[in-house]
Amino acid sequence: MRARDLLADFPTVALDTPVIEAARMLADQDLPGLVVVDDDGSPFTILPGTQVLRLAVPAYCQDDPALARVVDEAHADAFLRALDGRTVRAALPQRPRELPVTDPDATMLELAALMARTHSPLVAVVDDGRLLGAVTLQALLDRVLAA
Amino acid sequence: MRARDLLADFPTVALDTPVIEAARMLADQDLPGLVVVDDDGSPFTILPGTQVLRLAVPAYCQDDPALARVVDEAHADAFLRALDGRTVRAALPQRPRELPVTDPDATMLELAALMARTHSPLVAVVDDGRLLGAVTLQALLDRVLAA
Known about the structure:
Two copies of one chain form a homodimer.
Chain A: H1 3-6, E1 12-14, H2 19-28, E2 33-37, E3 43-48, H3 49-56, H4 59-63, H5 73-77, H6 88-91, E4 101-102, H7 108-118, E5 122-127, E6 130-136, H8 137-146
Parallel strand pairs in A: 1-2, 4-5
Antiparallel strand pairs in A: 2-3, 5-6
Helix pairs in contact in A: 2-3
Organism (chains A, B): Nonomuraea purpurea
InterPro entries (chains A, B): CBS_dom (IPR000644), CBS_dom_sf (IPR046342), Diverse_CBS-Domain (IPR051257)
Keywords (chains A, B): CBS domain
């Protein structure tokens, strides 16, 4: 089996998508992460669900989650609202990260290694710069266990 | 809202559970990760789905996923089978990692910070060493977006 055999269409967000909308897509469609595309529709980055949270959580809380407790409960409940109007572009980390992106010929082992290494339950499959779709951890495990 | 308001029962695996069975639970029950309990039933570690793959992928492939392509397709398809009989205990990394574990009083912001920091879509909630359940990224987003 190769990545092309496990491909599924995957919703994308643009760099100009508001962060709050990205979070809503993740929640409503029960996605393991998001594929962010640039203005040409090419994959720009892949955000595992946990890293979508990273867009919304103040840096001092990420450095030390216990510090988050000094924020009162009402403000803590509303932490996503603080991002109203902020776009994915503005919220992305400055430092580029290794992307879980591969080509349609990738084997099951290669997909698993990429997911393990990048902590991403989602790998984008790209052919010649064009996004073909994505393979999820769930799809990978289902197929490998049935093999 | 506090962690206790989002708690869900969560299936656990023991240190002696075969890795292949852990992978099957993840796939069949569509879980974002696993809570590993020790012989007393206390949470020992939390394994996000991507780190369950880490138990099965040879280290050289994790260091450089492109190297995985030298493994032929038939063997690559069967990479989980190489672990037949191997237990979670034997497959855990030597180096202890920061655990996404908190107490029932944790706020939404604290849960989000923990998930972002540890790359885990799953936080175990523990009271006095006893596992009460877990909060998933999905449950957190659903509640925070509805607030």
